[in-house]
Design a protein that fits this description.
The protein is of the alpha+beta class. Helix content is 37%, strand content 17%. The chain folds into 2 domains: 113 residues, NADH Oxidase; 168 residues, NADH Oxidase, CATH 3.40.109. It has 10 helices and 10 strands. The strands form 3 sheets. Strands 1-2-4-3 form a 4-stranded antiparallel β-sheet, covered by helices on one side. Strands 5-8-10-9 form a 4-stranded antiparallel β-sheet, with helices on both faces. Strands 6-7 form a two-stranded parallel ribbon. β3 and β4 form a beta hairpin. The longest helix is centred in the last third of the chain and has 20 residues.
Protein backbone atom coordinates (compact mmCIF):
# COMPACT_ATOMS: atom_id res chain seq x y z
CA UNK A 1 0.00 0.00 0.00
CA UNK A 2 1.28 3.45 -0.93
CA UNK A 3 2.04 6.01 1.78
CA UNK A 4 2.85 9.69 1.55
CA UNK A 5 5.90 10.91 3.45
CA UNK A 6 7.24 14.26 4.63
CA UNK A 7 8.66 15.01 1.19
CA UNK A 8 5.21 14.54 -0.33
CA UNK A 9 3.70 16.76 2.38
CA UNK A 10 6.20 19.52 1.66
CA UNK A 11 5.54 19.29 -2.08
CA UNK A 12 1.77 19.33 -1.61
CA UNK A 13 1.80 22.21 0.88
CA UNK A 14 4.16 24.30 -1.26
CA UNK A 15 1.61 24.20 -4.07
CA UNK A 16 -1.46 24.41 -1.81
CA UNK A 17 -0.48 27.72 -0.20
CA UNK A 18 -0.55 29.37 -3.64
CA UNK A 19 -4.34 29.01 -3.73
CA UNK A 20 -6.48 32.14 -3.45
CA UNK A 21 -8.49 33.00 -0.34
CA UNK A 22 -10.74 35.90 0.63
CA UNK A 23 -8.55 38.85 1.66
CA UNK A 24 -5.60 36.44 1.26
CA UNK A 25 -6.37 35.19 4.76
CA UNK A 26 -4.89 31.73 4.01
CA UNK A 27 -7.21 29.80 6.39
CA UNK A 28 -5.51 26.41 6.17
CA UNK A 29 -3.11 23.98 7.81
CA UNK A 30 -1.58 20.77 6.45
CA UNK A 31 -0.31 17.67 8.16
CA UNK A 32 0.93 14.13 7.51
CA UNK A 33 -1.20 11.52 9.28
CA UNK A 34 -0.86 7.73 8.85
CA UNK A 35 0.63 8.07 5.37
CA UNK A 36 -1.98 10.57 4.13
CA UNK A 37 -1.86 14.32 3.55
CA UNK A 38 -4.60 16.21 5.39
CA UNK A 39 -5.99 19.69 4.77
CA UNK A 40 -7.32 21.39 7.89
CA UNK A 41 -9.20 24.62 8.52
CA UNK A 42 -7.30 27.28 10.43
CA UNK A 43 -10.26 28.73 12.32
CA UNK A 44 -8.15 31.59 13.66
CA UNK A 45 -8.11 32.91 10.08
CA UNK A 46 -11.79 32.51 9.30
CA UNK A 47 -13.17 36.00 8.66
CA UNK A 48 -15.49 36.73 11.59
CA UNK A 49 -17.67 39.24 9.73
CA UNK A 50 -17.29 38.40 6.04
CA UNK A 51 -17.45 34.62 6.49
CA UNK A 52 -19.74 33.76 9.37
CA UNK A 53 -20.88 30.53 7.68
CA UNK A 54 -17.43 29.23 6.68
CA UNK A 55 -18.29 29.41 2.96
CA UNK A 56 -15.13 31.35 2.02
CA UNK A 57 -12.97 29.09 4.19
CA UNK A 58 -14.27 25.96 2.46
CA UNK A 59 -13.80 27.54 -0.99
CA UNK A 60 -10.21 28.41 -0.09
CA UNK A 61 -9.45 24.98 1.35
CA UNK A 62 -10.96 23.37 -1.74
CA UNK A 63 -8.67 25.45 -3.96
CA UNK A 64 -5.68 24.53 -1.80
CA UNK A 65 -6.66 20.86 -2.03
CA UNK A 66 -6.73 21.04 -5.82
CA UNK A 67 -3.20 22.47 -5.90
CA UNK A 68 -2.05 19.72 -3.54
CA UNK A 69 -3.63 17.12 -5.82
CA UNK A 70 -1.67 18.48 -8.77
CA UNK A 71 1.59 18.48 -6.83
CA UNK A 72 1.12 14.85 -5.84
CA UNK A 73 -0.11 13.72 -9.26
CA UNK A 74 2.89 15.25 -11.04
CA UNK A 75 5.07 13.24 -8.67
CA UNK A 76 3.37 10.06 -9.96
CA UNK A 77 1.46 9.66 -6.67
CA UNK A 78 -2.11 10.85 -7.36
CA UNK A 79 -4.53 11.21 -4.47
CA UNK A 80 -8.02 10.02 -3.64
CA UNK A 81 -9.77 12.93 -1.88
CA UNK A 82 -12.16 12.37 1.02
CA UNK A 83 -14.16 15.32 2.32
CA UNK A 84 -14.58 15.54 6.09
CA UNK A 85 -13.48 11.94 6.69
CA UNK A 86 -13.68 12.21 10.50
CA UNK A 87 -16.91 13.38 12.15
CA UNK A 88 -15.03 13.98 15.41
CA UNK A 89 -12.44 16.33 13.87
CA UNK A 90 -14.42 19.31 12.59
CA UNK A 91 -11.29 21.11 11.42
CA UNK A 92 -10.31 18.26 9.10
CA UNK A 93 -11.53 19.41 5.70
CA UNK A 94 -10.00 16.78 3.42
CA UNK A 95 -7.78 13.71 3.48
CA UNK A 96 -5.61 12.84 0.47
CA UNK A 97 -4.88 9.12 0.32
CA UNK A 98 -2.38 7.71 -2.22
CA UNK A 99 -3.93 6.06 -5.26
CA UNK A 100 -2.12 3.66 -7.61
CA UNK A 101 1.06 5.17 -9.01
CA UNK A 102 0.88 6.44 -12.58
CA UNK A 103 2.48 9.10 -14.79
CA UNK A 104 0.91 12.54 -14.65
CA UNK A 105 -1.39 13.48 -17.51
CA UNK A 106 -0.52 16.35 -19.83
CA UNK A 107 -3.32 18.40 -18.26
CA UNK A 108 -2.04 17.81 -14.72
CA UNK A 109 1.48 18.79 -15.78
CA UNK A 110 0.28 21.98 -17.48
CA UNK A 111 -1.97 23.03 -14.61
CA UNK A 112 0.74 22.35 -12.03
CA UNK A 113 3.14 24.55 -14.01
CA UNK A 114 0.52 27.32 -13.87
CA UNK A 115 0.24 27.26 -10.06
CA UNK A 116 3.10 29.66 -9.42
CA UNK A 117 1.93 32.06 -12.16
CA UNK A 118 -1.74 32.36 -11.14
CA UNK A 119 -2.61 35.61 -9.39
CA UNK A 120 -5.46 38.09 -9.14
CA UNK A 121 -5.26 40.82 -11.77
CA UNK A 122 -7.29 43.82 -10.59
CA UNK A 123 -6.17 46.28 -13.29
CA UNK A 124 -7.96 46.90 -16.60
CA UNK A 125 -7.70 44.13 -19.19
CA UNK A 126 -6.88 44.55 -22.83
CA UNK A 127 -9.83 44.62 -25.28
CA UNK A 128 -8.85 41.32 -26.94
CA UNK A 129 -11.74 38.82 -26.72
CA UNK A 130 -11.28 35.34 -25.25
CA UNK A 131 -11.47 32.85 -28.16
CA UNK A 132 -14.39 30.38 -28.25
CA UNK A 133 -12.12 27.35 -27.90
CA UNK A 134 -10.57 28.77 -24.71
CA UNK A 135 -14.02 29.55 -23.31
CA UNK A 136 -14.96 25.92 -23.89
CA UNK A 137 -11.85 24.78 -22.02
CA UNK A 138 -12.91 26.83 -19.01
CA UNK A 139 -16.40 25.32 -19.03
CA UNK A 140 -14.94 21.82 -19.28
CA UNK A 141 -12.54 22.56 -16.41
CA UNK A 142 -15.45 23.30 -14.07
CA UNK A 143 -17.37 20.27 -15.32
CA UNK A 144 -14.37 18.04 -14.59
CA UNK A 145 -14.81 18.93 -10.90
CA UNK A 146 -18.59 18.32 -10.91
CA UNK A 147 -19.49 22.01 -11.13
CA UNK A 148 -20.98 24.27 -13.79
CA UNK A 149 -19.62 27.45 -15.31
CA UNK A 150 -21.83 29.98 -17.06
CA UNK A 151 -20.13 32.55 -19.28
CA UNK A 152 -22.24 35.68 -19.58
CA UNK A 153 -22.90 36.50 -23.22
CA UNK A 154 -24.25 39.85 -24.42
CA UNK A 155 -24.60 43.23 -22.76
CA UNK A 156 -28.04 42.41 -21.33
CA UNK A 157 -26.64 39.56 -19.21
CA UNK A 158 -23.48 41.50 -18.38
CA UNK A 159 -25.35 44.63 -17.32
CA UNK A 160 -27.72 42.56 -15.20
CA UNK A 161 -24.79 40.95 -13.39
CA UNK A 162 -23.08 44.32 -12.93
CA UNK A 163 -26.20 45.76 -11.30
CA UNK A 164 -26.36 42.83 -8.87
CA UNK A 165 -22.64 43.08 -8.08
CA UNK A 166 -22.73 46.86 -7.57
CA UNK A 167 -25.79 46.57 -5.34
CA UNK A 168 -24.07 43.91 -3.21
CA UNK A 169 -20.92 46.02 -3.03
CA UNK A 170 -22.94 48.99 -1.73
CA UNK A 171 -24.42 46.78 0.99
CA UNK A 172 -20.94 45.67 2.09
CA UNK A 173 -19.53 49.19 1.98
CA UNK A 174 -22.27 50.36 4.35
CA UNK A 175 -21.33 47.64 6.86
CA UNK A 176 -18.83 49.28 9.23
CA UNK A 177 -17.76 45.97 10.77
CA UNK A 178 -17.16 44.45 7.34
CA UNK A 179 -15.04 47.39 6.22
CA UNK A 180 -13.09 47.42 9.49
CA UNK A 181 -12.28 43.74 9.06
CA UNK A 182 -11.19 44.28 5.46
CA UNK A 183 -8.88 47.10 6.52
CA UNK A 184 -7.03 44.77 8.89
CA UNK A 185 -6.09 42.60 5.90
CA UNK A 186 -4.82 45.45 3.72
CA UNK A 187 -1.13 46.14 4.32
CA UNK A 188 1.08 49.04 3.29
CA UNK A 189 4.16 47.27 4.66
CA UNK A 190 5.44 43.79 3.72
CA UNK A 191 3.40 41.03 5.36
CA UNK A 192 3.12 37.25 4.87
CA UNK A 193 -0.65 37.48 4.40
CA UNK A 194 -3.38 39.92 3.44
CA UNK A 195 -3.48 42.19 0.41
CA UNK A 196 -0.65 44.61 -0.32
CA UNK A 197 -1.88 48.10 -1.15
CA UNK A 198 0.14 47.86 -4.37
CA UNK A 199 -1.98 44.88 -5.50
CA UNK A 200 -5.26 46.78 -5.24
CA UNK A 201 -7.22 48.17 -8.14
CA UNK A 202 -7.26 51.92 -8.82
CA UNK A 203 -10.04 53.78 -7.07
CA UNK A 204 -13.44 53.29 -8.67
CA UNK A 205 -14.83 55.82 -11.14
CA UNK A 206 -18.49 56.44 -12.04
CA UNK A 207 -18.22 54.78 -15.46
CA UNK A 208 -16.89 51.49 -14.06
CA UNK A 209 -19.16 48.55 -14.81
CA UNK A 210 -17.97 46.26 -11.99
CA UNK A 211 -17.23 46.98 -8.31
CA UNK A 212 -13.74 47.03 -6.81
CA UNK A 213 -12.82 46.59 -3.17
CA UNK A 214 -11.45 49.77 -1.53
CA UNK A 215 -7.87 48.57 -1.20
CA UNK A 216 -5.83 51.25 -2.96
CA UNK A 217 -6.18 55.03 -3.03
CA UNK A 218 -4.23 55.49 -6.24
CA UNK A 219 -5.99 56.76 -9.32
CA UNK A 220 -5.65 55.23 -12.76
CA UNK A 221 -3.70 56.77 -15.59
CA UNK A 222 -5.67 58.75 -18.20
CA UNK A 223 -7.20 56.49 -20.82
CA UNK A 224 -6.95 53.38 -18.62
CA UNK A 225 -10.65 52.65 -18.24
CA UNK A 226 -11.77 49.11 -17.57
CA UNK A 227 -12.85 46.99 -20.52
CA UNK A 228 -16.48 47.78 -21.52
CA UNK A 229 -17.40 44.11 -22.06
CA UNK A 230 -15.43 41.91 -19.64
CA UNK A 231 -15.84 38.15 -19.79
CA UNK A 232 -17.67 37.19 -16.60
CA UNK A 233 -17.96 33.57 -15.51
CA UNK A 234 -20.27 32.32 -12.76
CA UNK A 235 -19.23 29.05 -11.16
CA UNK A 236 -21.86 27.04 -9.33
CA UNK A 237 -22.80 23.74 -7.77
CA UNK A 238 -25.91 21.54 -7.76
CA UNK A 239 -26.61 22.41 -4.09
CA UNK A 240 -25.11 24.55 -1.32
CA UNK A 241 -23.95 22.08 1.29
CA UNK A 242 -20.49 22.28 2.86
CA UNK A 243 -19.39 19.60 0.40
CA UNK A 244 -20.63 21.66 -2.55
CA UNK A 245 -18.62 24.65 -1.38
CA UNK A 246 -15.52 22.48 -1.04
CA UNK A 247 -15.81 21.09 -4.58
CA UNK A 248 -16.54 24.62 -5.82
CA UNK A 249 -13.15 25.63 -4.46
CA UNK A 250 -11.48 22.83 -6.38
CA UNK A 251 -13.39 23.71 -9.54
CA UNK A 252 -12.60 27.41 -9.16
CA UNK A 253 -8.90 26.65 -8.91
CA UNK A 254 -9.01 24.34 -11.92
CA UNK A 255 -10.72 27.08 -13.94
CA UNK A 256 -8.24 29.72 -12.76
CA UNK A 257 -5.25 27.53 -13.61
CA UNK A 258 -6.76 26.61 -16.99
CA UNK A 259 -7.10 30.34 -17.68
CA UNK A 260 -3.52 30.97 -16.56
CA UNK A 261 -2.27 28.15 -18.79
CA UNK A 262 -4.07 29.88 -21.70
CA UNK A 263 -2.21 33.15 -20.91
CA UNK A 264 -5.35 34.75 -19.50
CA UNK A 265 -5.56 37.04 -16.50
CA UNK A 266 -8.25 36.61 -13.86
CA UNK A 267 -9.77 38.25 -10.81
CA UNK A 268 -12.40 37.03 -8.35
CA UNK A 269 -15.68 38.83 -7.68
CA UNK A 270 -17.33 37.57 -4.49
CA UNK A 271 -19.56 40.49 -3.46
CA UNK A 272 -22.74 39.12 -5.15
CA UNK A 273 -22.12 35.78 -3.40
CA UNK A 274 -21.50 37.30 0.03
CA UNK A 275 -24.87 39.09 0.17
CA UNK A 276 -27.66 36.44 0.34
CA UNK A 277 -30.28 38.51 -1.47
CA UNK A 278 -27.86 39.31 -4.29
CA UNK A 279 -26.84 35.66 -4.56
CA UNK A 280 -30.47 34.59 -4.96
CA UNK A 281 -31.05 37.33 -7.51
CA UNK A 282 -28.00 36.11 -9.43
CA UNK A 283 -29.25 32.52 -9.34
CA UNK A 284 -32.61 33.56 -10.74
CA UNK A 285 -31.00 35.64 -13.47
CA UNK A 286 -29.06 32.58 -14.62
CA UNK A 287 -32.21 30.43 -14.63
CA UNK A 288 -30.25 27.81 -12.71
CA UNK A 289 -31.52 25.28 -10.17
CA UNK A 290 -28.07 25.10 -8.58
CA UNK A 291 -26.23 27.65 -6.45
CA UNK A 292 -23.71 30.28 -7.63
CA UNK A 293 -20.51 29.98 -5.58
CA UNK A 294 -18.14 32.56 -7.10
CA UNK A 295 -17.83 34.95 -10.04
CA UNK A 296 -14.69 35.41 -12.12
CA UNK A 297 -13.52 38.19 -14.42
CA UNK A 298 -11.39 36.80 -17.25
CA UNK A 299 -9.38 38.46 -20.01
CA UNK A 300 -5.95 39.39 -21.27
CA UNK A 301 -3.61 41.73 -19.40
CA UNK A 302 -0.20 42.26 -17.89
CA UNK A 303 0.71 39.71 -15.19
CA UNK A 304 -0.60 40.79 -11.80
CA UNK A 305 1.45 41.29 -8.66
CA UNK A 306 1.92 38.10 -6.60
CA UNK A 307 0.54 38.35 -3.09
CA UNK A 308 2.61 37.03 -0.16
CA UNK A 309 2.22 33.63 1.48
CA UNK A 310 2.99 32.34 4.94
CA UNK A 311 6.05 30.08 5.18
CA UNK A 312 5.59 26.32 5.31
CA UNK A 313 6.76 26.30 8.95
CA UNK A 314 3.53 28.14 9.85
CA UNK A 315 1.09 26.06 7.85
CA UNK A 316 2.43 22.52 8.38
CA UNK A 317 1.34 21.15 11.75
CA UNK A 318 1.79 17.90 13.63
Amino acid sequence: MQHYDNTDLQRAATAAIRAPSMHNSQPWHFRLRNGTVEVLADRSRQLATADTTGWALRIACGAATFNARLALATNSTPAIVQFRPDDHDTDLIARLTPDARRPASYTETDLYAAVEHRRSHRLPFWPDPVPPEVRQRLIEAARAESCWLDLLVGMTALTGFAEIAQSADRVLRRDEHYQAELSTWVHAEPSPDGIPVTAGAPTAEPQDLLPQRPISTRTRAPGRDYEPEPLIAILGTPADRAYDQFIAGQAMQRVLLTATDASLATSIISQPIEVPAAREQLRRSLNRTGTPQIALRIGYGHPGTPTPRRPLTEVIVD
